[in-house]
Amino acid sequence: MRKDASAQTEDHVYGLVSVLYHALQGAETYEKYVDDAERAGDDELVRFFEQCRDQENERASRAKQLLVERIDERAGEGEDDDDDGDI
User: Which domain holds residue 41?
Assistant: First the structure.
């Protein structure tokens, strides 16, 4: 049963890493769109693309936070296993 829980955790970690990656990629892409809209002089599109970029950056930050928490939890579990007296 423990093996299934570990695999499930790894799936969640993979999902967080994937969201983090794609959010950062999206933010980078939106930044290019901001530059294009600025060159075109379209302030409405600049604001829109900036909002999109900011949302992606917020998503990336949240994914990073959740990822760190889960990595810390797993590290803590590993430390508990060492306290079993098995050497």
Answer: 2-68
